[in-house]
Amino acid sequence: MDPMKTKPVITFIVEWLKTYAENAKVNGFVIGVSGGVDSAVTSTLCAMTGLKVMCLEMPIHQAESHVTRAQEHIHQLTEKFSNVQSTRVDLTPVFESFKSEINLEGNTQTVEMALANSRARLRMTTLYYYAGLLGKLVAGTGNKVEDFGVGFYTKYGDGGVDLSPIADLLKSEVYDLGRALEIPESILKAAPSDGLFGDARSDEDQIGASYPELEWAMKAVEAGKTPDDFEGRDRVVFEIYKRYNSANKHKMNPIPVCEIPDNLKH
Where do the structural domains in the chain lie, given as residue ranges? Predict the structure, then answer.
């Protein structure tokens, strides 16, 4: 996206959000603020609608850097917009109680991943509690590469939302909007992270490729390229993208329904 076009894009998304909420007859949005650029941009766009916005900070053994950035953004947002409220729900004891009741035996890496996804689902449950309590919609924070490229989100966790304002924007485009919206510099400079492991590991650490590389691979796939078209690092990145895209189709495709033939039902 040409950075010069950020203003009309921002206006378009804000109007889209406002229209959707009005048609749904709700009075605003609930959003989880993590200290990352996606949630910072999404919460700012929601605030710009003038509708009520509830920002939730939901730490679970969170890295201090994530907590600091989330609080900085929420402070900026509440100072700038009178329609924004915030609350902090410490889910650490809830998570620990959950862990005490389940079987933690098995492959260490598998258990760690299952617990990471459980964190995201606890947050989703919390967001929907407040959405139901306040008559609001849960706004998603996923971008296009995460939601439709590599499927880098938790099914029924951060993927469990009512609407997705930035899911048609590549990560680089989200950063363009972030700069235009004057998101805190600490967030714009921070390495993207899902914050699901209680440490500061980045998305790139987990995936093995950066977002600019993944954007390149996404466009290459859309252009009909194959691994044989590349060599070296390009081929590695292309294959990483393809592997994640294939493995996570179950997140991106509609839930399969077993359709019973009429002659068996009647």
Answer: 3-205
Residue 206 has pLDDT above 60, yes or no: yes
CATH architecture for residues 3-205: 3-Layer(aba) Sandwich (3.40)
DSSP 113-155: HHHHHHHHHHHHHHHHHHHHHHT-EEBP---HIIIIII--S-T
Q: Measure CA 161 to chain center.
A: 10
Q: Indicate if the pLDDT at residue 188 is higher than 60.
A: yes
Q: Which tokens hold the place of 92?
A: 């650490």
Give the model's pLDDT for residue 195: 77
Q: Rounded to whole angstroms, how far apart are CA atoms 107 and 104? A: 9
Q: How far from 231 is each of 135, 143, 237, 244, CA to CA, in Å?
A: 52, 28, 10, 19
pLDDT digits (tens, 9 = 90+) for 126-165: 999 999 999 999 999 999 999 999 999 999 999 999 999 9
Biggest CA pair distance of the chain: 63
The pLDDT score that the predictor gives to residue 106 is: 86
Which residues partner with 84 through β-bridges? 53
